[in-house]
C-alpha cells in the first residue's frame, strides 16, 4: 500500500474496520441483492423470487450469459454507493469486462433507475420477472453494457477501450470521478495496455479523476489471465511503472473483504481529493505536476459466491465460472437443486418485500436522484451537451477570384477556423491526433489551445517550439486507439472533438469505428431517452496520393469501404475538393450530432476553385456540375467527367483543360462530388439522390469517367443500381506505388490527367479517329513525366503544373 | 542493473572497460562509417565520398528521410557484430523505429550483403553513389526496412509490431537470438505495449531468445515520447513489472558509451546463455520456469552526432533531428557548409579506400557469411522453409451418404486434421487464437499440441482441464495484435501456422493484414531473392450468423471487404459450405505459400452436403452447380439460386426445398461458391472465371438470387462487370440484429429461406400469379418464427429444422 494511503489509513475508525457491524450487515445485504438479481437474469424466466420450488419450466430454454465478473463488479458498486452518499460524489462507472452487464443492470434496477427508464420492468414481482426474462433473450437486451443500459457509456462488446473511454469522460469535468473496472482479460489487449499511460495527459486542476480498478479474477473464457499469473511484485512494479499508486484488496471472505474494500476505496477517494485540492489551491501561475493517482487491484475469485464445486470440479475461482456456472439445470435435477440452493444462499426473502421491491433499509443504501450512478447525466451526455460556439467559417475563406489559380494547404486553412473554434469552447472541445497535428498542417490550432496537453516531465528545450503545456487542449500520443477512445469518451459525456490522422493508419481503429457506429445506431434509432451526442469528426489526411516518400505501406484509402458498411443513419463521408469546401464541411460536421463524419482532405498545397459562396452552395448540395469546367451548356454532353476527392479533382480538371484545348468540339460536363453518399439510391441512404436527379447529372447513356480518391470499386458499390452505371468507368487507387513523385503515383494508378484524357478518347467513339494524335501525345507525356521523376527525384514543373485557363 | 549482470560484470576485463583502446578505435570507426553512409543516403546524389567540395548540385532535389534513430541503431549494430564474432552468434535484427532503414541499409552495405543482392550497388565509389541516390527517391527504395532490405523481416511502415514479430521469429528457433530495437515512439502504441508480455509464452528450452533494446531517444515527429519523460524509477519498475531485467546504457560521449554498451550487451548475451543452459541442462521432466530475460534501455540523443545546434536552435537531442536535421542545404550556403562539416566529422577519408570500399581493418569487424546479420537466412525465411508434413485430410472426412441429413460442427472436424498435422510438425507449426480456440470448437488440437503454451505461473487446478503446459503449441493471449504479430514473425522465418478468431473482431487486425499483404506483394512480385514463405491462414469463425447471444457488437462480416482491396496476387478467400469442403480448403491453405488465406467457417452444428470426393472436386473448381439441389437438367433454368458461406448455403437449400415442394414446375439451378474470387473477371484475379464460364453458370438473363455470408455489396463489387449482373439480387448482412435466435437473425437480414423463396417468387414473372398463396404462407412462417423465438427464447424446431428430401 502506498505511503499516502497508509497515512490516510490512520483515520480509520473501529480499529481498521471502517464499517460498523450495522453498516457491514447492510452493505453485504445490498450486495446479496445484486448477486441474486444477476443469477436471476442469467437463469430465470419465471418464479423470480423463488416463492415456489424451482422447477425446470422456470428456467430459460437457452442459457446465455456470464456470471464470472458480476459479483466482483457489484461488490465494487456497493462500496462506491457508500462513498457517493458519504461525500456527495459525482461519479460514473465504466464496466470493462466483457459480458459483465448483469452487475450494472442489477444495480440500476435496485437504484430504481431501470424502472424509471423502462416502466414495464417495475420494482415488483411482475417487473422483476420481465427484467429477468429479457436478459440475453431474443428480442431482449444483450449481456454487455449496451446502449440500452442506463448509466453506460461503454458497451465493451469488443474489449480494450474502457480506460481510454474513462479518461475521455474525465477530461474537463473537474468534479467528476470516473470509476473504470478493467477486466484482467481485456488488460491483455494492446489498446488497454497502453491506455494506462493516459495519466500523463490528465491535469488535476481542470480535469476530473479516473479511478481504475483492475479486477483480477484470474480467468478469461478458457485460460488464466496473464496479470493474475505474474508475481505480486511484478504486478505492483508494473502499475507503479505506469505511474499509478496501486492498492490491493485481496481475499474471498465477504465480511473481511467488505472492510478492506471500504477502507481502501475511501483512502482512494481521499487521495484523489487531496491531489485535486493541492493542485487547485496552488498559487496562480504554479504549474501542476503529474501526481501518482491511486488505483485499486481487486483480487477476488472468478464467479465469487457461486457454488465452490460442481461434480468434483472447482467452480468458484475457476474458468468454469466465467459463463454459466451450472449448465444444465433443466435436464439435471441435481444441478437444478444446486442452482436453487445457490440462489437461496443470498436469502432473497430477507431482501425483497412482499411486493418484490427491495426493502426500505436497503433502498436507503443507494444514492438518490442524479447521484445514482445509472442516473448520472454524464452517462447520457447528450443531456449536458451544448452546441459549440463557432466563429463564422466564412471569415476564414480563401479569396478565389477565378478557379484554379492559387495553391494553398486546405488543412492549414481549416486549422485557423479550428483554432478560433477552440478559443470559444475552452472547456468543451478538444483536438486529437497521433503525433501528427503539425505534420498534418494543423499546428496553428496550438495558438488557440495553449498548445498540446503534456503532464509528463518538461525540459528547458521544450520552450523552444515544443508547444507543450499543462493546459494544452490538443491531445497527442502515438496510439490511435487511445486517442479514439479518449475522443469517444469525451463526446459520450456531452462534449465536442476533432481527430486528424494519416489516411492509411486510420485502419488501426477500424474496429473501434465499427463499435462506436453500432452504439450510435442503437442509441439514435431505438432509445429516445438517450439525448443526441456530438459526432465523431475524423479528418483523414496525409492522403494516399501524397505519401510519395513514405511509400507503399502508407498507401491505403480503404477506410471508406469500412465506413460504408455501417448504417446510413450514422455515417457521413465528405471529400471537399478545396479549402473553402473544407471550411464549409468542417463547420457542418462540428454542428452535427450522432454521426461519424469522415472528411478526406489533403495537407499539401493544392489549387483552389470555389469562392466561399459557391463552396457553401456546392457543399450544401453535396454534388454538382461545375460550370466553369463544363462546356455542355444545357445540352447532353459527349462525356461526363466526374470526381470525388481533392487530388482526383485536380487531375480531372487538368484532363479537362487538356481536352478543351486539343479536342475543342468535345462537349464535357464536369461533376464534382463532396458528399459521397449522394451517389447512393435515396431509398438506401438519407443523402441519396433520386433516380431523376442522378440521371440529370450523369445522363442515362453517356460515358462517365469518374476519378475517385479511394478504391474504384467503392463507386461501383454505391452506384450499381443507377441507370447509367454500365457506362461508369471509375479510376482510383489500385495498390500501385512505392517511392514516387505525386504525378508518378497518379500515373501508376491511372488517376492522372493524361490517363483520364485517354479514357475519354477511348470512350467517345468519334474521338477515336480524330484524337489519335492527341492520344499519342498523352502517352508521350506519361513516359516523359516518369523519366523526369526518376532522373531528378521531383516532378517536372513543366509537365505537372497547370492552371485553369482564365 | 540486475544482480545477475552485476555478478557477470565481475568478469569485465580492463577495469570496467571491456574494449581495449584498439578495439574501441575500430568499433568507433566502423560506427562512423555507418553514420557517414546514413547521412550520405539522406542527402547526396553525387560526390558520395566528398572528394570534391560539397555543392548544391550534389544534393538531392527533394530531401526525404529520417536521421533521428539511425546513429543509435548503428551503434547497437556494431556492438552486436562484435559479439556475433566473439561468440559465433546466430542473430537477427528487427528495426522497430519507423523510417530507421538507413541504419540497416548502411550496415548491409558495409557487410557486403547489399552488393551481393544488388550488384549495381557495388562496394566502390560508383556503387556508393547509386546506393545513396536510390534512397527515398522516386523509383528507388523506401525509408523503412521494406522487403527490398536484406536482413529485414519487419518493415515498420506502421508502428507497433516489432516485438511480437521478434517473438514469432524466436519460437522454435532455440539457437537464435532476435534483437528487437523498439522505438520509444512505437512503444506508445497499444500493440507494442502489450507485446512485452510475450515473455510469458517463450520457453527457454525449445525457443530462442529475444533481446529487446528500447531505444529511448526522446522524440517522435513533433513531441517528446512518454517513456522518455517518466522518472527513471518508473521506467525500471515498468520493465520489471513486465517481467524483464532492464539494463540501462545512457549518455552521449561516444567513447564512454562504447565501453558501456560493450559491457552491457555482453552481459545480456551471457545472461541469455546462462538462462538457456540452466533450462536445457535440467534433469528430464523438470518443468522450466519463466526466467527474467534481460533487456536494454539505450538512452542516447535523438540524431546523435549531428550538429548540436542550427540557427540557435537545439538540434542533436531534439525533435528537430527526427527527420532531416538540415532542411535547406541547396539554397542556404551556410547550411550547405554545416552539412559538409557534419559529414566530414566522420572522417570518410580514414574509413574508405581509394576505390571507395571500406578499409580492410574495418571490414574485419563484420561477421562473415551467413553470420552477417543481413545475410542470416532466418530473415529470408523461405530459404529455410520446408513444406508441412500433412496427414491425408480425406481420413478425417465426414461420412455423407446423402446431402443434408446429418449435422456436425465443421471446425471440430477440421480440428482433428489440425491435431494430427500438429503432431507431424512439432517444431515448425503453431496454432494461434485469442482465448477462443476452445470456444471455436478447435480444442481437440490440444491433444496433439501438448495443450497451450503457458510460461506464467501454474496452479494445481490447472491440471483439471486447463490444457496449459510449458511445451504447449497452441498460443492464446487476449490480444489479436500480439497473435498476428507472432504468427507473421513465425512464417517470415520459414515456419507454418494457423489462426482462428471471432469474425467481428478480426477487424482489430485490419491494418496488420494490410501491411503484411503489401509486404507479401512486393516480396512475391519484385524480389526474386526472397524465397516464398508460408501463407497466413486465417480462420474466421464464430460467425456473424451465430452471434445470437453476443448481439449487435459481435456482428460484422466486413473483413472480406478489406481483403478484396489488396492485391489479387496475395489474397484468397474461401467459404467452404460444409465440413468436408473445409477439410479440403484447410489442406490446400496449409500447403500454399505467399498468400493470406481467409477461410470463413462456422463452429456450430450444421448440415453436411458433400462426400469427400465431391467436396474435393467442388473445392478444386471453387464454384459449381449442385446437381442434387438443381432441377434444370441441362436446360436454362427459371432462376439461379446461388450462395457463398455455410449458413447462407443452408438457408438457400432450405428455400429450394420449399420451392421444389410448393412450385414444383419451377426450374432451379443451384450454384455454390467456395472460392470467392471465382466471381471476379479473369482479367482481374488469377482465380477469376472467364466470361463464358461465368455465363454458363449464372446464365445471361435469368434472375439470380445470391445468398451471401457477408455484406451484399461485396458480391456486386466482384460481379458488376458480368453480363447478367443486373439480374443479380444479393442478400447478405445488413446491420440488423441484436439478441436473436439464429433463424430470427437470418430473417432480420432477409437471408432466411422464407425471404429467399419470396425473392424467387417476386422475380420469376409467372410465379407472381401462381404462387401468391405460397408467398402468403412464407410471410406467415416469418411472423410465426419470430413470435416463437420471442416467446420461448429458442427457435421453433418445427419451423427451423429441415433435411434435404432423400
UniProtKB/TrEMBL annotation, chains A, B:
Ranges where the Xylulose 5-phosphate/Fructose 6-phosphate phosphoketolase C-terminal domain occurs: 603-804
UniProt cross-references to InterPro entries, sorted A to Z: Phosphoketolase, THDP-binding, Transketo_C/PFOR_II, Xul5P/Fru6P_PKetolase, Xul5P/Fru6P_PKetolase_C, Xul5P/Fru6P_PKetolase_CS, Xul5P/Fru6P_PKetolase_N, Xul5P/Fru6P_PKetolase_ThDP_BS
Gene3D superfamilies according to UniProt: 3.40.50.920, 3.40.50.970
Alphabetical list of CDD domains matching this protein: TPP_PK
Cofactor(s) the record lists: thiamine diphosphate
The enzyme's E.C. designation: 4.1.2.-
MF terms (GO), sorted A to Z: aldehyde-lyase activity
Record bears the keyword Oxidoreductase: no
Single GO BP term: carbohydrate metabolic process
HAMAP family registered for this protein in UniProt: Phosphoketolase
Protein family: Belongs to the XFP family.
Protein name: Probable phosphoketolase
Lineage per the UniProt record: Bacteria, Pseudomonadati, Acidobacteriota, Terriglobia, Terriglobales
Amino acid at each position: 500500500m502506498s505511503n499516502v494511503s497508509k497515512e490516510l489509513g490512520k483515520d480509520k475508525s473501529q480499529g481498521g474496520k471502517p464499517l460498523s457491524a450495522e453498516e457491514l450487515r447492510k452493505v453485504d445485504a445490498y450486495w446479496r441483492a445484486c448477486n441474486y438479481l444477476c443469477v436471476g437474469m442469467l437463469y430465470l424466466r419465471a418464479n423470480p423470487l423463488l416463492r415456489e420450488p424451482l422447477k425446470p419450466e422456470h428456467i430459460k430454454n437457452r442459457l446465455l450469459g456470464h456470471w464470472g465478473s458480476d459479483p466482483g463488479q457489484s461488490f465494487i458498486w456497493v462500496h462506491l454507493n457508500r462513498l457517493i452518499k458519504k461525500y456527495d460524489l459525482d461519479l460514473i462507472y465504466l464496466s470493462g469486462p466483457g459480458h459483465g452487464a448483469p452487475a450494472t443492470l442489477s444495480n440500476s434496477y435496485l437504484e430504481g433507475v431501470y424502472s424509471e427508464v423502462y416502466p414495464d420492468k417495475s420494482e415488483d414481482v411482475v417487473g422483476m420477472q420481465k427484467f429477468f426474462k429479457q436478459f440475453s433473450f431474443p428480442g431482449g437486451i444483450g449481456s454487455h453494457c449496451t446502449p440500452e443500459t442506463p448509466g453506460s457509456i461503454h458497451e465493451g462488446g469488443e474489449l480494450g477501450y474502457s480506460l481510454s473511454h474513462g479518461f475521455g469522460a474525465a477530461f474537463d469535468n473537474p468534479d467528476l470521478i470516473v470509476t473504470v473496472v478493467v477486466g484482467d482479460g481485456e488488460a491483455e489487449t494492446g489498446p488497454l495496455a497502453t491506455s494506462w499511460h493516459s495519466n500523463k495527459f490528465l491535469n488535476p486542476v481542470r480535469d476530473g479523476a479516473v479511478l481504475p480498478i483492475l479486477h483480477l479474477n484470474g480467468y478469461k473464457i478458457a485460460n488464466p489471465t496473464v496479470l493474475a499469473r505474474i508475481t505480486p511484485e511484478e504486478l505492483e512494479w508494473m502499475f507503479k511503472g505506469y505511474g499509478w499508486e496501486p492498492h490491493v484488496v485481496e481475499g474471498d471472505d465477504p465480511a473481511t473483504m467488505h472492510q478492506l474494500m471500504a477502507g481502501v476505496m475511501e483512502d482512494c477517494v481521499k487521495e484523489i481529493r487531496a491531489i485535486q485540492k493541492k493542485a487547485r489551491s496552488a498559487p496562480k501561475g504554479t504549474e501542476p505536476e503529474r501526481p501518482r493517482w491511486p488505483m485499486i487491484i481487486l483480487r477476488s475469485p472468478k464467479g465469487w459466491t457461486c457454488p465452490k464445486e460442481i461434480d468434483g470440479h472447482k467452480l468458484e475461482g475457476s474458468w468454469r465460472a466465467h459463463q454459466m456456472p451450472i449448465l444444465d439445470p433443466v435436464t439435471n435435477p441435481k444441478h437444478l437443486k444446486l442452482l436453487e440452493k445457490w440462489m437461496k444462499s443470498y436469502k432473497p426473502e430477507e431482501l425483497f418485500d412482499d411486493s418484490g421491491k427491495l426493502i426500505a433499509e436497503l433502498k436507503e443504501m443507494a444514492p438518490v436522484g442524479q447521484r445514482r450512478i445509472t442516473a448520472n447525466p454524464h452517462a447520457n451526455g447528450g443531456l449536458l451537451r451544448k452546441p459549440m460556439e463557432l466563429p463564422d467559417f466564412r471569415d476564414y475563406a480563401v479569396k478565389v477570384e477565378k478557379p484554379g489559380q492559387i495553391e494553398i494547404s486546405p488543412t492549414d486553412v481549416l486549422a485557423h477556423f479550428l483554432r478560433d473554434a477552440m478559443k470559444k469552447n475552452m472547456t468543451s472541445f478538444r483536438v486529437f491526433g497521433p503525433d501528427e497535428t503539425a505534420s498534418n498542417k494543423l499546428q496553428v490550432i496550438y495558438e488557440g489551445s495553449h498548445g498540446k496537453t503534456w503532464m509528463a516531465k518538461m525540459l528547458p528545450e521544450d520552450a523552444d517550439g515544443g508547444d507543450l503545456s499543462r493546459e494544452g487542449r490538443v491531445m497527442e500520443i502515438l496510439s490511435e486507439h487511445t486517442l479514439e477512445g479518449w475522443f469517444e469518451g469525451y463526446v459520450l459525456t456531452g462534449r465536442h472533438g476533432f481527430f486528424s490522422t494519416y489516411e492509411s493508419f486510420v485502419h488501426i481503429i477500424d474496429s473501434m469505428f465499427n463499435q462506436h457506429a453500432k452504439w450510435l445506431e442503437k442509441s439514435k434509432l431505438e432509445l429516445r431517452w438517450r439525448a443526441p451526442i456530438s459526432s465523431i469528426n475524423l479528418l483523414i489526411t496525409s492522403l494516399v496520393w501524397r505519401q510519395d516518400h513514405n511509400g507503399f505501406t502508407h498507401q491505403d484509402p480503404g477506410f471508406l469501404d469500412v465506413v460504408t458498411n455501417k448504417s446510413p443513419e450514422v455515417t457521413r463521408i465528405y471529400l471537399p475538393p478545396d479549402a473553402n469546401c473544407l471550411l464549409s464541411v468542417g463547420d457542418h460536421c462540428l454542428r452535427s450530432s450522432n454521426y461519424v463524419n469522415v472528411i478526406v482532405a489533403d495537407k499539401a498545397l493544392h489549387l483552389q476553385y470555389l469562392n466561399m459562396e459557391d463552396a457553401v452552395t456546392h457543399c450544401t448540395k453535396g454534388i454538382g456540375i461545375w460550370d466553369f469546367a463544363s462546356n455542355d451548356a444545357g445540352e447532353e454532353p459527349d462525356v461526363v467527367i466526374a470526381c470525388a476527392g481533392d487530388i482526383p479533382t485536380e487531375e480531372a480538371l487538368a484532363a479537362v483543360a487538356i481536352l478543351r484545348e486539343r479536342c475543342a468540339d468535345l462537349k464535357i460536363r464536369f461533376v464534382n462530388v463532396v458528399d459521397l453518399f449522394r451517389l447512393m439510391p435515396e431509398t438506401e441512404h438519407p443523402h441519396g439522390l433520386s433516380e431523376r436527379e442522378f440521371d440529370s447529372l450523369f445522363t442515362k447513356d453517356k460515358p462517365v469517367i469518374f476519378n475517385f480518391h479511394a478504391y474504384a470499386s467503392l463507386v461501383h458499390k454505391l452506384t450499381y443500381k443507377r441507370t447509367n452505371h454500365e457506362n461508369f468507368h471509375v479510376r482510383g487507387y489500385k495498390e500501385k506505388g512505392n517511392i514516387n513523385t505525386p504525378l508518378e503515383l497518379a500515373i501508376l494508378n491511372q488517376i492522372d490527367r493524361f490517363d483520364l484524357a485517354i479514357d475519354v478518347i477511348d470512350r467517345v467513339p468519334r474521338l477515336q479517329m480524330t484524337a489519335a494524335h492527341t492520344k499519342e501525345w498523352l502517352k508521350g507525356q506519361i513516359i516523359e513525366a516518369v523519366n523526369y521523376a526518376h532522373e531528378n527525384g521531383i516532378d517536372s514543373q513543366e509537365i505537372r503544373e497547370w492552371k485553369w485557363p482564365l
